[in-house]
Queue: 2 jobs
Job 1
Amino acid sequence: MTPEGETLLLDGGRALGLDLAPHLPAFAELLRLLQEGNTRLNLTALKTERDIVLKHFIDSLSCLRGGDLGEEGLVLDLGTGAGFPSLPLAIVRPGLDLVPLDSIGKKIRFVEETAQSLGLKNVRPQVGRAETLGRQDEHRGQYDRVVARAVAALPILAELALPLLRVGGRLVAQKGPITDEELRAGQRAAGEVGGQVQAVDAFKLPLSGDARTLIVVTKTRPTPAKYPRREGIPNAQPLF
Ligand code: SAM
């Protein structure tokens, strides 16, 4: 990582209340592996150092705003892609046990190899669809938190994530600006699958100034057995 990249990372971290100085070597290696992986696998549209530092690393870590992810516990990263937000979270929150999930095998293989290269013992990547895991005993109702960055509209996310949470657990959804209509539909969907929207935090990302919203949904009661519906239906026919 260049000195400019390091400064961006440190400044961005500071704006989020994080001291990333001890983690510079890990982020430099993650940047290198991501750029190398990108040329082989075309993993992410973001290719420059500046974009990766701001729009992957700092953006990913912004889910720590508000403290809803906590310092420990079992966290499923629904639709992790090339490992975001899981990999940056695993670096700065060693007490979290992270399960990055994606339906695309090549992305999960990259996350697995990258976690190994970085020596991250708190990352257990998983290939599969959230709808499938949501109906398996070893995953349903097992997670303390679900985090999802840029994956789906809130009503869809609620149906995919809430079955995986234990009662009392939380979904932390990282999104761009959200319309009142999506929020209302998300609130109704959350109610249907056993949850309640707890917080909506609209903010600007440090340095880039991009608009982001963190939505926290708490699971208040068990999800009815009919959810999640089968693969692809939550997306094709959102609850609300
Ligand atoms: N979270 C990553 C990020 O912020 O860079 C990736 C975002 S990408 C736009 C959405 C990812 O979610 C894709 O890799 C897709 O394969 C995955 N995905 C979408 N629906 C899914 C589902 N139902 N189960 C598992 N993965 C899913």
Job 2
Amino acid sequence: GCYADPVRAGMDADAVFDGMTEHLFFTLGKLATSASLRDLYMALSFAVRDRLMSRYLTSQETIRARPQKTVAYLSAEFLIGPQLNNNLLNLGIKKEAEEALKRFGIESLNEILEVEEEPGLGNGGLGRLAACYMESLASLQVPAVGYGIRYEFGIFNQLIRDGWQVEVTDKWLKGGWPWELPQPDEACLVGFGGQTESYTDDNGNYRSRWIPSEHAIGVPHDVPVLGYRVNSCDRLRLWRADATESFDFYAFNIGDYYGAVEEKVASETLSKVLYPNDGTDEGRRLRLKQQHFFVSCSLQDMLRSLEKRSIAVEEFPNHWTVQLNDTHPAIAVAELMRLLIDQHRLDWDKAWEITNRSVAYTNHTLLPEALEKWDLSLFKNLLPRHLELIYEINRRFLQQVRLKYPGNDLILRKLSIIDEEGGKAIRMAHLATIGAHHVNGVAALHSDLIKRQLLPEFAQLWPEKFTNVTNGVTPRRWVALANPELSKLLDKEIGPNWITNMDLLLELEKKENDSNFLDLFASAKLSGKRKLAGYIHRQTGVLVDPSSLFDVQVKRIHQYKRQHLNALQVIAQYLRIKNGITKNIAPRTVIFGGKAAPGYFMAKLMIRFINGIADVVNADPDMDGLLRVVFLPDYNVKLGEQVYPATDLSEQISTAGKEASGTGNMKFAMNGALTIGTLDGANVEIRDRVGAENFFLFGKTESEIMELRDQGYSPNSFIAESNELQETLKLIEVGHFSNGDSELFRPIINILTGNDPFFVMADFDDYLRAQDEVSKAWKKSKKWNRMALLNTARSGFFSSDRSIREYCQSIWKVKPLPVEISC
Ligand code: 26Y
């Protein structure tokens, strides 16, 4: 795996220049004199990709020569973001690339980075977490493969027209994407539908055989994932579905060869598009097909890797540890059983032992509407053999439960994989929990609630199975790459090792009273704010003042995340300014960003609501110098890189108990934003680490919310007690933010004054109080800067390196495998 040609592997500016020149000529068919920015982006990307190859291939050789356990991270989403800058950073050739670009007449690398389309192969937090974890795995030199789907269309692009969200197809592959390596020779065949039949095998045993009615072919498209300044380069293997019409392109050993060739199934639609709902399970047939498709390909791929090396299938758990990123890949429990029993002829107990020793499950949500359930008839129609296996898993499991709780039918009903309430359905969280050796939540509070509320009967049955791994984010992308000014300052002050050892940031605590240093810290922030202000002006036409407080809420739009609470607060501030009560007001720019699921009416209306407020506020001269409101269209990874470094105040205001963890909250804190937030998800741990005095806490706790709900919550009792809230609601009702149309935002008013499912009214006054604290603190700039510095200094815990170390030690039992390159 070693290739030393300087044109392909050289790390200096000359070599990068030569590599680009060759790619322009031979790969792109262009002369340097006529190359466009896009051509130069492609040429540089190919030159960088060349430099990944010896690392990538040597990493694979190393594990082949010294077999040890590899992590298989199964996720329906990988929101990896732009690749070029990250690979330049991790390779350590950013300066060299800049120098090479100068010779093509390009003065700033940014011009080239601008061209890159990001693969939006995820909705939000869960997909981005998978990407951060892949980067940390490689950086920690842990052998790993991420398995997922190569959606042809990722998360839609968002336009804002007349204040409304408009969805536009994400054609990220147009023009070619230089970071993937298709591997058609490693294609896998996946079946769907049909029926099972029983037969007696050669040894006289009754067996079941699945005769699918359709097949699809999965073609791996591999993306190299390089670690930071190491040779370890892991693989993200994304499956593209091909129709079996092109089956004869591939060499397979299956019984029904002709049947497979003759199929006229448009199987390629399987990997066509990412479902854009995060948080609401719609139980769609095609989604289950997508899940089984990528899970089956991935497990076959793992088993094949053992066969290739003549390793017995019984050894599977010593070579692979399979992590399920939520229940989306939970069919893996049944599919691994099927492959072991039907294809590899293992008996049930052996197959179950292998499955259980290999699989672990991460839960990312408690919200009932996000818990995957599959209608039994749909499931049976698509995966009849899997249904049989699930019935048997369930039968054996419930038998075990009966022995422990004799005569307790209630507990059987609660634990069963089959939900018998209403139409029968398969509960994927139960399948995953029974099949896995560990179940973890993604923040301390969340993991606790899994045990107390979501799966209490399981937690009682298997207390040792349940654990917590608090989420983390990669400091490479989210600090080193996104925030060059802060990074420079950190390098100068504490040396460059913070990038791989974020605990070193604690040394910054010594600087908390150093005015000079605080000024430098603040000017790094100001530089980020100037850049964002420029972007805001170009995108929205709104002029914002970089010296105002940048108050930011970016995340998917959801009622539980309560963007409407933030919006109401903005209206309250607007009213104060209109009424001349400006003494305690700090000049603010309130920035929102995020996509709404296309079918989520309330979320889309919330976007319209924010834009309605923005129009009124920004057009009113009374607001000049005091208040601006911006909705940033098309929030994605690339835009996040602009936003986190430019933020003073991070809005983390979900109803307590509803946000499993949050990861944006961590990105903000690392970049020196202060948080205004509830005791929800990882906010709790952020506050514990950075110090309560450096965090603006408000709102009811999870147990207070529960109590309120149990007592029969009535939002009107809270409204009755708050004049500002009444005035705020009234202004919306008269159509002040909708050109006099008093109907437009009626649904928002109705929900808030009706049953207010997310307790917005209950938390409003305390939120306003906390915002006043924010304004007060902002006016003492030195104190603010000290608080901000302490947020950066104490946020090392939220590095995904720490999270991955925890997974490796307590769940996966895997060790690093350093990769050496000999040439
Ligand atoms: C069932 C299907 C429609 C579905 C699709 C996507 C359900 C959920 C999702 C995505 C969930 C998600 O992004 N969850 C977030 O995971 C983050 C990483 O753990 C958490 O930080 C965050 O709190 C949680 O909402």
